[in-house]
């Protein structure tokens, strides 16, 4: 299976950078912006497979601020519970939502985050480095992967726009372009009834009732050919 390319634009210079290099690239910009002694902002990498976010979080902001941001850009569907842990997503030590970023993060530390304890979505959050920069609103988006190049599993030529969650759960071909979706609906009663969901730029795709975020919506959909 061909590995899906993951890359995104830098907030500062608009250059498109590979996922493997974006943290280092952003550090180059952030190092030049440190002009506010007494301020502390954490450069964070959030990822789940090919999906990633690069964030700058005010050290005085609580984890509930990060929780709300992750929900709004990637996760929120039905108001499920969530938690941060260290040492493992399910077996690690739970970290309270009121804890401030400055009290939790240190360089290189990795946190686990789970949204929804039924149809769960798991993320890993790594603290890259602290910078003497103020952050308006508490959290700033520095980069996000562009919509992944997911092609229709049937024609293999057009971008997939819909996912059949019944086939998704069974590990079968399940992503279809608009034309092939119509053909699939004729063959799959579940698809025509309830099982179709939109392709979205999120690790929550295909789970529960998730249909997209409320932040950075222009990059929340399907890639363009």
Give a description of the structure.
With 225 residues, the protein is of the alpha+beta class. The chain has 2 domains: 7-144, MM3350-like (Structural Genomics Hypothetical 15.5 Kd Protein In mrcA-pckA Intergenic Region, Chain A, Roll); 162-219, no CATH class. 24% of the residues lie in helices and 27% in strands. It has helices spanning 19-33, 63-75, 101-104, 165-169, 178-187, 189-195; strands at residues 7-9, 16-18, 41-48, 51-58, 82-86, 93-95, 110-115, 121-131, 139-144, 162-164, 175-176, 196-198. Strands 6-5-7-8-3-4-9 form a 7-stranded antiparallel beta sheet, with helices on both faces. A 3-stranded antiparallel beta sheet has the order 11-10-12. A two-stranded antiparallel sheet has the order 1-2. The radius of gyration is 19 Å and the shape is globular.
Task: Write the SSE topology.
Blueprint: E1 7-9, E2 16-18, H1 19-33, E3 41-48, E4 51-58, H2 63-75, E5 82-86, E6 93-95, H3 101-104, E7 110-115, E8 121-131, E9 139-144, E10 162-164, H4 165-169, E11 175-176, H5 178-187, H6 189-195, E12 196-198
Antiparallel strand pairs: 1-2, 3-4, 3-8, 4-9, 5-6, 5-7, 7-8, 10-11, 10-12
Helix pairs in contact: 5-6
| Annotated CATH architecture of the largest domain | Roll
**Main CATH class of the largest domain:** Alpha Beta
**pLDDT averaged residue by residue:** 94
Number of strands: 12
Helix and strand composition category: alpha+beta
Run of helices and strands: EEHEEHEEHEEEEHEHHE
Bulk shape: globular
């Amino acid at each position: 299976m061909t590995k899906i390319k993951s890359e995104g634009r830098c907030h500062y210079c608009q250059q498109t950078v590979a996922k493997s290099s974006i943290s280092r690239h952003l550090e180059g910009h952030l190092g030049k912006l440190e002009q506010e002694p007494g301020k502390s902002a954490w450069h964070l990498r959030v990822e789940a497979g090919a999906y990633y976010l690069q964030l700058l979080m005010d050290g005085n902001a609580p984890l509930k601020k990060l929780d709300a941001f992750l929900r709004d850009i990637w996760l929120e569907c039905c108001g499920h519970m969530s938690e941060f842990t260290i040492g493992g997503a399910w077996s690690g030590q739970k970290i309270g939502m009121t804890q401030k970023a400055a009290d939790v993060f240190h360089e290189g530390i990795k946190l686990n985050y789970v949204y929804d304890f039924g149809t769960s979505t798991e993320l890993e959050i790594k603290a890259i480095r602290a910078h003497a920069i103020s952050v308006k609103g508490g959290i700033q988006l520095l980069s996000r992967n562009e919509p992944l190049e997911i092609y229709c599993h049937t024609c293999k030529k057009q971008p997939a726009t819909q996912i059949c969650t019944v086939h998704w759960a069974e590990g079968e071909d399940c992503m279809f372009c608009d034309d092939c979706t119509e053909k699939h609906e004729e063959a799959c009663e579940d698809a025509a009834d309830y099982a179709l969901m939109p392709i979205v730029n999120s690790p929550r795709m295909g789970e529960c009732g998730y249909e997209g975020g409320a932040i950075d919506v222009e990059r929340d959909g399907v890639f363009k050919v």
